[in-house]
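Let us work through a complete example step by step.
Step 1: write down the sequence.
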Amino acid sequence: MSTVTLPLHPALTREVAHVRHRLALGLTLLDAQAGQPAGGMSCRLEAIGNRPLGQALAPHGHGRHALLLRDHAARVMTRAASDKASMPPPLAADDPTRLLISIAAGHGASGIWHAQDDPRRYVPRRLALIPQLDGLQPAGGWFNIREVGLWPGARWPLSANATAVRGRIRRGPDADSLTPVAWARVTLTRPSDPLAAADFDNETVVGWAHGDDRGEFLAVLGSKLLPGGAALPASVTVRLWVFLPPAGGSDNAFDQLPIEIAGSDLHNAVLAGTAAPPGYVRQAAVTRVLSPGEVSTIHDDALDYIPA
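Step 2: predict the structure and record it as tokens.
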């Protein structure tokens, strides 16, 4: 089948003066485990600075989403950029031009996330991104393109020989009042000496996981897990380091999703999803012996946190 390319003609174009929007931000969502585009997600602009908005980013396939500022949103950005120019903010979190973006599956037509509609392939995220400006609007070109890592949810498709760890994180005032911890984070390390005391700063990081609204996480471990050598070891010792979010907050799970300040960098650990969000506190290590090529499940009591 052949295609016909029509010659450029005024009847097929629009005058520049009639175009009322411009690209403010381009996101590429990546499966952080597989390194491939992450599909099936939607992105929404929740706010510019402290000014609430509710605008969906336009999907463009292969995990790409575009934020076009038009009409009201463009005027809000102009005011925000003017505020920033007149009084530069001391912190990125206070930047009036920051774009608060939520990334999730299960967004309804109204933009509200519904847990029962989320296929749980990836764990949702909420990011604060600061655009590079050209005058009072976001700059064009590559200055405002970001890659965002999304980590496996409970139903992420595991291969037949995957090495992975599943678990559920809970906390409460006592053993009878434990509830799931929404949006916890987990870092997995491999000690050089399994008999030595746990040392987060000096052990090899072999994986990360994001907990979901039900406290569940799935950590898929790749090539960093195995220390090398000709023979595949029968077992490997790993340590799980849980990072708990601040207690309390809204009863709505999605409202508890942390705002991660990614700033204006094109690449950083926040965008990749390997940095714990602000206010998260690292807990004592949980040590486990894993069998490569198998999925291990950690029993609840090992991941229950009760204040001393």
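Step 3: interpret the result. The radius of gyration is 22 Å.
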